[in-house]
């Protein structure tokens, strides 16, 4: 894992843009893991409930974006541009409490368990103010360069 001051801005690692870029920063990254942070607030405005809390189901997207930040950094180290990835599935998502409190500092961790070509499986967790509050296993797919445009060009009618 790295010194956070030496890491690139999160916007340079993900294809997401406001209002759906939900992470504030990449804090650490290694060959098989990443850690990101976000504080529940204005960045999440479209998703907040009436009390300013972030619904628990958004945790899956926070985990997916942390995986995307890891993939973006791996690509950057290889001199590649940011690529789109896909969330294929989520297993055993547990979130307690059912929402992330307004103003809470969230730390999202993703650890790559298995990678085969563009397919990968990650063990993820979210800590709210230092305490684990959500866990899941996510399966992802990152198409090879050109493969996404081939998929989008196919007539699916």
Note down, in words, how this protein is organized:
This protein is α+β, with helices and mostly antiparallel strands. Helices cover 17% and strands 38% of the residues. The protein has 2 helices and 8 strands, in the order E-E-E-H-E-E-E-E-E-H. The chain has a 6-stranded antiparallel beta sheet, with helices on one face. Strands 3-5 form a two-stranded antiparallel sheet. Strand 7 and strand 8 (131-141) form a beta hairpin. The model has no long low-confidence stretch (mean pLDDT 93).
Short account of what is shown:
It is built from 2 helices and 8 strands; from the N terminus they run E-E-E-H-E-E-E-E-E-H.
Core attributes:
six-stranded antiparallel sheet; 2 helices; 8 strands; 157 residues; two-stranded antiparallel ribbon
Name the overall outline: globular
Helix-strand pattern, N to C? EEEHEEEEEH
Strand order of the largest sheet: 1-2-6-7-8-4
Low-confidence stretches: none
Mean pLDDT: 93
Q: Describe the biggest sheet?
A: 6 strands, antiparallel
What count of helical segments does DSSP give? Answer: 2
Q: Helicity level, as a percent range?
A: 10-25%
Helix-and-strand structural type: alpha+beta
**First-residue to last-residue Cα separation:** 46 Å
Share of β-strand residues: 35-45%
DSSP, total strands? 8
């Amino acid at each position: 894992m790295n010194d956070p001051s030496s890491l690139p801005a999160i916007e340079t690692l993900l294809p997401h843009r406001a209002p759906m870029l939900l992470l504030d920063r990449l804090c650490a990254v290694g060959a098989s893991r990443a850690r990101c942070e976000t504080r529940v607030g204005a960045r999440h405005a479209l998703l907040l409930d009436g009390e300013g809390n972030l619904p628990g189901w958004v945790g899956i997207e926070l985990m997916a974006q942390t995986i995307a930040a890891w993939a973006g950094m791996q690509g950057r180290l290889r001199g590649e541009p940011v690529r789109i990835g896909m969330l294929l599935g989520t297993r055993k998502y547990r979130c307690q409490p059912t929402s992330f409190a307004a103003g809470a500092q969230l730390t999202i961790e993703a650890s790559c368990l298995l990678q085969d070509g563009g397919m990968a499986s990650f063990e993820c967790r979210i800590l709210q103010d230092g305490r684990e509050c959500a866990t899941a296993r996510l399966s992802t797919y990152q198409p090879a360069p050109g493969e996404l445009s081939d998929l989008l060009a196919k007539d699916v009618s």
